[in-house]
Write a structure and sequence with these properties.
Layout lengths: L1 H21 L3 E8 L3 H14 L4 E4 L7 H10 L3 E4 L23 H19 L6 E3 L6 E2 L2 E2 L1 H7 L4 E3 L7 E2 L13 E2 L7 H14 L2 E6 L11 H13 L4 E4 L1 H11 L1
Parallel strand pairs: 1-2, 1-10, 1-11, 2-3, 4-7, 9-10
Antiparallel strand pairs: 5-6, 8-10
Length: about 260
């Protein structure tokens, strides 16, 4: 019996080492929130030119003009992910009280996420699980944490939260797949060098790093187009050291490694 266990441990160790050898030194995920026009006009063309992929967390505010463009993005291999229909958030109380997350319940929130999944299916026809990003990185609605409600509903395979420029993930075993940290890029003040520095931190730790962008060269929380281009250039030049993939594929890889 002891010999059997010993040999099983050797096999498991060899398999784990082989899986580690196949992995790149770091995983970088580029995510973009709110389905903004600047993402269609600037971010996606830059990504296309660099031959890199990304994840776009969409809301239900797509127009008759933008909807076909997002469908085309999905056909190119970009991940179209869930950011709710109406983006309820405490910050929305002045803009539109109906979208104030304080007026939501976990049930209402989960129902909205389910409806957004249906809209995304109409866009790309994909099944088998969706990625989700919490609006304004809030884990509560109406003062109640809804993460476990979302977990039980089974509507999100993985979910992204917020974080700062030190949000580098190294401990995959303790990572909650519905609370994956990311760096919420602040906007106009960010430089290409700062974006690349975050990537270098991920490289040094051989971990996972997730960017959260909003506008690129326009809209709001704007990352300058040139800074974004510098980041993509660095990622392209270091393909042998960095794996750039979609949020759902990165998390599939991380969970498999666990």
């Amino acid at each position: 019996m002891k010999k059997t266990i010993f040999f099983l441990l050797i096999i498991i160790s060899i398999t784990a080492n082989a899986q580690q050898a196949k992995r790149k030194k770091a995983i970088i995920v580029l995510t973009y929130d709110d389905g903004l026009t600047s993402q269609l006009n600037v971010a996606i063309p830059q990504l296309d030119s660099a031959n890199l992929t990304a994840t776009f967390f969409l809301t239900g505010n797509m127009t008759e003009t933008s909807l076909p463009r997002w469908r085309q993005a999905g056909k190119k291999g970009y991940e179209l992910a869930n950011h709710t229909l109406y983006h309820p958030c405490l910050l929305n109380v002045k803009a539109n009280p109906a979208d104030n997350s304080a007026n939501y319940t976990p049930y209402i929130m989960v129902r909205e996420i389910k409806e957004m999944n249906t809209l995304l299916f109409a866009l790309d026809g994909k099944t088998g699980g969706r990625s989700y990003a919490y609006p304004c990185t809030e884990l509560e609605v109406g003062g109640v944490d809804y993460v476990d409600t979302l977990r039980k509903a089974g509507l999100a395979k993985y979910a992204r939260i917020g974080g700062g420029p030190d949000a580098v993930i190294t401990d995959f075993k303790k990572l909650d797949p519905l609370k994956v940290p990311s760096w919420g890029v602040p906007g106009n003040q960010v430089t290409g060098a700062a974006l690349i520095d975050f990537v270098k931190k991920v490289q040094q730790s051989r971990g996972l790093g997730v960017f959260m962008f909003h506008g690129v060269g326009g809209d709001y929380l704007v990352t300058p187009a040139d800074a974004h281009r510098q980041l993509l250039k660095y990622l392209s030049q270091h393909r042998n050291e960095i794996e750039v993939t979609t949020f759902i594929k990165a998390m599939d890889e991380v969970m498999a490694a666990r």
